């Protein structure tokens, strides 16, 4: 099984570190976010990892070569010409992934103790194009799901923006914060209509009326988006005793 670690972003929220380095190399307890996630994937038997690169791409490549992939087999999806966001990044990396029955996609700036094996098992037991790891936690943006955790829409509670491709919002729908982790089937790749630079959120909302985009609730698991300097400090504290 393969995983795609989305590592190409500019990491503007992590300035000044990202003025000179890629966010994937931001340190947490002496290890980069990149190393944390590669070693975490190994806990679930995932040793084949695709990494997309753009911002200070050569720094990531140099670290991976020096560390021999931290024990994993690494393939690079090169976005140095233009950063493609999450959706465009997935499509650029598709040749590495499309032969896999199931593959994982994960943001490199997410740290979590969640059991990724359970997400993958759930996706296999309930086949669909994509299963999104979600939690009931405080956030500014939420995916909206029905009782079967089929995706129905999206909302930004700060701006009031609501996107409901399926039509009218139902009272029974629930709001979940996305965790930046997806289990996917290669069939999804065949249904993506967007081109070049685009977000996977747009893809999911475009396809949600199919019933093929679903959620997996892992509320209660430790998860932190390491997107700001202060979140690096918080992550260092939260993951101080986690052994990989």
Features:
244 residues, alpha/beta, 10-stranded mixed β-sheet
Q: How does this structure look, described?
A:
The protein is an alpha/beta fold and 244 residues long. The chain has a single domain (2-238), classed as Spore Coat Polysaccharide Biosynthesis Protein SpsA, Chain A (Alpha-Beta Complex). It is 27% helix and 27% strand. The chain has helices spanning 33-42, 57-66, 85-97, 116-125, 187-190, 200-207, 229-238; strands at residues 2-6, 27-28, 31-32, 48-53, 73-78, 103-107, 110-112, 130-135, 141-145, 151-156, 162-163, 174-184, 213-217, 223-225. Strands 1, 4, 5, 6, 8, 9, 10, 11, 12 and 13 form a ten-stranded mixed β-sheet that branches. It has a two-stranded antiparallel sheet with strand order 2-3. Strands 7-14 form a two-stranded antiparallel ribbon. Helix 3 (85-97) crosses helix 6. It is globular and about 50 Å long.
CATH fold descriptor = Spore Coat Polysaccharide Biosynthesis Protein SpsA, Chain A
Q: What is the alpha-carbon Rg in Å?
A: 17 Å
| Total beta strands | 14
CATH 4th-level superfamily: Spore Coat Polysaccharide Biosynthesis Protein SpsA, Chain A
> Which stretches are poorly predicted, pLDDT < 50 over at least 5 residues?
none
The helix/strand class is alpha/beta
Distance between the termini: 19 Å
- In the CATH hierarchy, the architecture is Alpha-Beta Complex
- Helicity range: 25-40%
